[in-house]
Write a structure and sequence with these properties.
393 residues, alpha+beta, Arc Repressor Mutant, subunit A, 3 domains, three-stranded antiparallel sheet, 17 helices, globular, disordered N terminus, Initiator replication protein, WH-like_DNA-bd_sf, WH_DNA-bd_sf, Initiator_Rep_WH1
């Protein structure tokens, strides 16, 4: 979700003479709790690939709870958070290619419902159109957002990260900043001393500790009173591994090197991994490598992914082996997930691994990782217990 990003103030005309294409910003009230903000990002990630052609979206409720840090059965908290998103206003202020200014507001979710273990939700058509524009919304990496413990810090990160390529947010009036942090109605935070001590400094410290950017607050005064604030933004080299927006994360995937060795371009390799998921690409790659006398491996792999080529003879498995049945169940579940869901599943599972060797083995072998066999089975049993009913325990 890369593209042009705002280069001046957060709100207002957003005009600069050198900008030819329209620029846009969508602002969400800072009153969202930390978990609500995480929930909003996960729902957007789940819906993003189909924002242009689908009117509603679905996600497994247990998966959703786990991804945002709830107990997987804590549907009461999930209901409260979904209610909060439906009651929260998103506001946009855009300059179009024709030079016309557009302002609008919409609830973050037009509706949400839970039924049969599935969360169904939708965005208003106007908001969906804005969110689908890659120039509007910067991808918030889920590996990063899970590291945050403060809603104010995550709000600051989101509002700074969209400016990370320009190096500065530009000057925000303090009233705008208070609104972004969700404290505009608090008389206590009308005093800059309190705002700085309780909101700005702790949020800056957590962003610098937990994210892929380092921010520094700068203020502007009128007389002795602080009137405006901006944040200077630099990359955080210690946590740059978390920044996947530029394709760095995809290039670290083991299957990426295999694709490049075959002659697949960097762009196409990253596109395939994003679209199909590492596991599927690896399977099709192994299928193509096993064929004899292939004149154009890249072209054959393209067809294999497009038309879902499968081996004529199934891989032999031990018929009565509980382990084999478990692997088959896991593979069946994974194959039934969308590319976006597969990516989210991997990120969620990876975040639960504490040992470097476990993470390395999972990165190499995915859901077939022998070192993480028990953890993988427990992970999928938690989400899809019925899928393992015929497997001996």
């Amino acid at each position: 979700m890369q593209g042009d990003i705002p280069k001046d103030k957060l709100t207002g005309a957003l005009r600069r003479g050198s900008v030819k294409k329209h620029v846009a910003a969508i602002h969400v009230s800072g009153k969202l709790t930390l978990l609500q903000r995480k929930l909003s990002n996960v729902l957007l990630l789940n819906a993003y690939d189909r924002l242009g052609d689908a009117q509603k979206f679905e996600m497994d409720a247990r998966t959703l709870c786990m991804m945002v840090g709830y107990n997987s059965n804590d549907f009461d908290t999930l209901k409260g958070s979904l209610r909060g998103l439906a009651e929260t206003v998103a506001e946009w202020d855009m300059l179009g290619a024709d030079g016309a200014q557009e302002w609008g507001v919409s609830s973050l979710l037009s509706y949400a419902k839970l039924k049969g273990g599935v969360c169904e939700y939708a965005y208003s058509p106007a908001l969906a159109e804005k969110l689908a524009d890659p120039k509007v919304f910067a991808l918030i990496n889920l590996n990063i957002q899970r590291r945050f413990t403060s809603g104010h810090a995550l709000a600051l990160y989101e509002n700074c990260y969209r400016f990370h390529r320009t190096g500065s947010t530009g000057w925000w009036p303090l009233d705008t900043f208070r609104r972004l942090m969700g404290v505009e109605d608090s008389a206590y935070y009308q005093t800059y001393k309190h705002l700085n001590a309780k909101i700005i400094k702790p949020a800056v410290a957590e962003v610098n500790k937990s994210s892929n950017i380092i921010v520094t607050a700068e203020t502007r005064k009128r007389g002795r009173a602080v009137t405006d604030i901006r944040f200077v933004i630099k990359p955080n080299p210690q946590l740059a591994i978390l920044d996947l927006d530029d394709g760095t994360g995809l290039r670290r995937a083991p299957v990426y090197d295999r694709l490049r060795a075959m002659g697949v371009s960097d762009r196409l390799a990253r596109q395939w991994i994003t679209q199909h998921g590492e596991d599927v690409v690896a399977q099709k790659l192994a299928y193509v490598e096993a064929q004899d006398d292939v004149r154009s491996p890249v072209g054959y792999l393209t067809a294999a992914l497009r038309d879902d080529f499968k081996p004529e003879k199934p891989v032999k498995q031990v018929a009565k082996s509980a382990r084999a049945k478990t692997l088959a169940s896991v593979q069946q579940i994974v194959n039934g997930r969308t590319p976006t869901q597969r990516d989210a599943d991997k990120r969620l599972f990876m975040s639960s691994l504490t040992q470097a060797n476990e993470r390395d083995d999972f990165e190499r072998h995915g859901w077939m990782s022998a070192l993480n066999r028990d953890a993988i089975e427990a992970f999928w049993r938690e989400l899809f217990p019925n899928a393992f009913e015929d497997v001996a325990t």
